[in-house]
Amino acid sequence: MGNIIIGTAGHIDHGKTTLIKALTGIDTDRLKEEKERGITIDLGFAHFTLPNGKKVGIVDVPGHEKFVKNMLAGVGGIDLVLLVIAADEGIMPQTKEHLNILELLNTKKGIIVITKKDLVDNEWLEMVVEEVKETVKTSFLKDSPIIPVSSKTGEGLDLLVQKIQEMTQQEFEKDLYSPFRLPVDRVFTIPGIGTIVTGSLICGCVSVGDAVEIYPKKIKSKVRSIEVHGESREKAFAGQRTAINLVDVKPDDIKRGDVISIPGSMQPVEKAVINVKLLEDAEKSLKNRERVRFHAGTGEYLGRISIINREEILPGERAFAVIHFEEAVPVTYEDYFVIRRYSPVHTIGGGKVIFVNPAKIKKEKIDIAVKGLEKIANGGIKEFILVYLSLFGKPVTSIADLFPYLGKNYETIRSAVDSLVKDNSVVFLKSGNEEILCDMDYYDNLTEKAKEIVEAYHLKNPFSEGILKEELKSRLGLESKVFELFLSKWVQEGYFEGSGKYLKRKGYKIVLNEKEEQMKDKLLKIYEEKGWTPPAVEEVVQLLKDFEEEKIKSILNYLVLEGSLIKLNDEIYMHKTWVEKAKELLKNHFQKNKEISVSQFRDMLNTSRKYALPILEYFDGIYFTRRIKDVRIPGSRISD
């Protein structure tokens, strides 16, 4: 059966702890000070089993206004709330504040329990019930059962248990597939065992032996053992009160407010975009740059609000803002939060986290940013990914990079990506295990830029085989793996072609004009006539004084591309015919001899060492020969 976590809420001294003891037999006031003062100061925990066998965990929260931050630490992961109101006092200040907090944290179900029934008569009780109905008529509790009880006499407790069972008959929706998250509400040590943390497991499942990470400090650890309701377990699931024994973690390394999850699933958050609503009964507006207390999970954090596109939020209004934290915070996408004034301390609003660690919003993009945030707030993961790529994240990112922003598993994110690709909303590139997403506008602009760079190169270097791929990558400012994925797509789409390290426009061909054709013919004639003793480039320039030096060098490179000339080094080119003749002579030589020296090769060609050595080095480069000390032997491609 599913697991349920119930939380209490209500004003101080309205009988929350006494009610839990009457239901479970467990006194949740564990601190000495709580016993002495007779009030709940910190969170307390209990559990019991419903008649149908369903396990129920209970989080008891303090009701005193001084300990609302402790109350907030306990109600974040509950499924059902018991709003406790004393019959002899009725609605009190913390009753209303706790109700506001529950609303802000998106609590869905609850039961209103009127305690201390034995202290009032029926007429007074009916009056309190009417007051309660009026107070909750616009809240999530408007249709909830109201059950008067007496923890002292036991009257009404059976009906309360029955109602709890009825309201938990249907399975509460639990996210069992996202990376597990355990907001820590208690840390302690047991001699001989080590550090223990407890919390309400809000999603996923955790097993003994799992590697874990403690956020925001990013401390790595491992699960030594797990307990649920005091019993040892191999696994704990979302919806369970869970205690975890951590390996090699000191008590000082972890505190209430930290979150335990799988490695890499979250990140330390310095700032976050939030969708915040101010309560209708807030005494005054929330000003831009105001310092606030931010409550999420089990933690309280200080930060300053930067309201987007306005100077204040009025009571009852909702707006987007960026909160800049004074310390790293473990929150993620869609986490609910509550905001309290820094001083005097009271609850003023709350909402949901939209985006963590966003890129800075430029002034000229404020309106676009607000529209993007509205898409995320009203949409889901698909909308988040689109806005991540276009505004707050990186326009090119891997699916793996999205994990710490979303806190979801691979399958969930990949499903959203597949839908976006199907809608032609993003560019998806895959090579092996590498999966890259790209904003569509960014991709279109980048493609146009790449085409312009290549075209400009062709205009400036008309006789070149193309731009170096490395140069294009550098000018586009891309990482190697990303560039290779884009390049593969560009070639596939028919924009470019190339081989080796060069790239050119698809279908690009070198076309010579009449004068260039004349130059080409003269160059070929010179190199054909000179055989194995070709002139250096500077000598060729002197021989062809009617032509520009740069043009001559360009035509030489063109002839190399065409295959008519072979470039031996920067100064020496040779006609292909003579290179082939040299190859034949060498091949015949190696049929009778195992090796050849430079001097032997020089004499074979009746040339000088100046030319013989570059020819041999060229042959080494194409594996026709292989150098062993001062001689050459047949290479691996001698038979080609």
Automatic annotation (TrEMBL):
Official protein name in the record: Selenocysteine-specific elongation factor
Gene3D superfamilies tied to this protein: 1.10.10.2770, P-loop containing nucleotide triphosphate hydrolases, Translation factors, Winged helix-like DNA-binding domain superfamily/Winged helix DNA-binding domain
Matches recorded under InterPro entries: Beta-barrel_SelB, EF-Tu_GTPase, EFTu-like_2, Elong_fac_SelB-wing-hlx_typ-2, G_TR_CS, P-loop_NTPase, SelB_WHD4, Small_GTP-bd
GO molecular function: GTP binding; GTPase activity; RNA binding; translation elongation factor activity
Source species of the chain: Thermovenabulum gondwanense
Function per UniProt: Translation factor necessary for the incorporation of selenocysteine into proteins. It probably replaces EF-Tu for the insertion of selenocysteine directed by the UGA codon. SelB binds GTP and GDP.
Alphabetized NCBIfam families for the sequence: selB, small_GTP
Lineage: Bacteria, Bacillati, Bacillota, Clostridia, Thermosediminibacterales
Recorded superkingdom: Bacteria
GO cellular component: cytoplasm
CDD domains in the record: SelB, SelB_II, selB_III
Keyword terms, alphabetized: Cytoplasm, Elongation factor, GTP-binding, Nucleotide-binding, Protein biosynthesis
Localization per Swiss-Prot or TrEMBL: Cytoplasm
Single Gene Ontology BP annotation: selenocysteine incorporation
Domain (Tr-type G) ranges: 1-173
Alphabetized PROSITE patterns for the sequence: G_TR_1 (PS00301), G_TR_2 (PS51722)
Predominant location category: cytoplasm
